[in-house]
Amino acid sequence: MKILFQVVIGLFILIISVSTTFAQEATDGQDNRFPGLPYYSYGSGLGWTTPDSTFQLNLRFRMQNRATFLNYEEEDPAIEAVVRRLRLRFDGFVGDPRFLYAIQLSFSPGDVGQIQEGRNINIIRDAVIFYRPNRFWNFGFGQTKLPGNRQRLNSSGALQLTDRSVNNATFNIDRDFGFQAFYLSDSSHNFSYNIKTAVSTGEGRNWTDSPSVNLAYTGRVELFPLGAFQKNGFFFEGDIVREETPKLLLAGTYHFNHKAQRTQGQLGRELIEPQDLTSIFVDAMLKYRGFSLQSAWMTRRTDFPISGPNIPFVIAGSGTDVQMSYLFPSDFEVIGRFSTQKPASEIANFQPERDQYSFGVTRYVWEHALKIQTELTYDIRSFSDNTTNNGWYFRFQVEIGI
């Protein structure tokens, strides 16, 4: 409790001191595109602003409909047709453009999950308030994405392929409730950098079981040696704005989750005994004239993974992703991705090594707001007993949103 009290008091003093320092700076014409929020949206949705400009509301939605043909060894071929994502988002400001809010709700089966007696329904994805005293600082309180790896910070609606990599599904840090503080310096012509920090519960979104004083701590540094991307281009995949000069992102995240209660920190099954988890992410992005290259390495570590055939265990290990693409002038894009994943030795008997090869073609009708995607992925799963379970899938997906 003493540690929690010190953290809260420290954040409060920091917010007060910074807001006092910058309160005199002009905010007229301030950009309200939420550069501090960890997701990208094209356009401004449907907006309402009161005549006295004391309240603003933007309404947005997006939908992903997909059909997948699956063909894996030792399994019958299958066709899966689902609404993969259905999201509704509201954002704006109240009283003053410096006081921002964002709400995002999700309704698809994959987002909500199975309804279980005594468990919360996971409709709420984001519910966060930001205080933005000037264009450099953002202070947030509520539930939203932690400043994790680059692909996870990108909205699922801003991806080139139909979904994130297998490593993101296994090792990413997800949404959490807590305090966040960002310092954002984005000059398109000069060296720039962002510093993002968070102190959160460590248990994930909408978690009310077994509350404790154990917290998670996250820090991320983003460097732009050649200047910032156009139109917040590091928040979406592919060079859809066709950068006229090369743009490069180099970034790293450190995350410590003290006595996590779930197998993946903010996600997964409940552990029998809480464990300390350490996650590290290193990623890079390069864009130039329609060409895009992304690379990422990530790892999750723990000193005492709990392992057993029927016992929840920490999903520890590491993975690497490399993704390349080129956008033709016709707005057709070709994408290739290679992912490799290696579990920690303590859980190698229960978690296979994986290699995935993906190839996709995307047609952008209206940037990421309306696009048609196809993807072919070959998946290799290698087990510790020298057996394999290989397979492939072909997917067709349509994304639409405002």
Helix fraction bin: under 10%
* Biggest β-sheet description: 16 strands, antiparallel, barrel
Structural class from helices and strands? mainly beta
Overall 3D shape? globular
List the total number of helices. 4
Spatial separation of the terminal alpha carbons: 44 Å
The portion of residues forming beta strands comes to over 45%
**CATH topology category name:** Porin
Order of helices and strands: HEEEEHEEHHEEEEEEEEEEE
What is the strand tally? 17
Compute the gyration radius: what is it?
21 Å
User: How many structural domains does the protein architecture include?
Assistant: 1
Mean pLDDT: 88
Low-confidence stretches: 1-9, 11-33
Top-tier CATH class:
Mainly Beta
Descriptive report:
The protein has 402 residues and is mostly beta strands. It has one domain (2-25, 48-401): Porin. 9% of the residues lie in helices and 50% in strands. The protein has a 16-stranded antiparallel beta barrel with strand order 2-3-4-5-6-7-8-9-10-11-12-13-14-15-16-17. The longest helix is centred in the first third of the chain and has 21 residues, at 2-22. It is globular, with a radius of gyration of 21 Å.
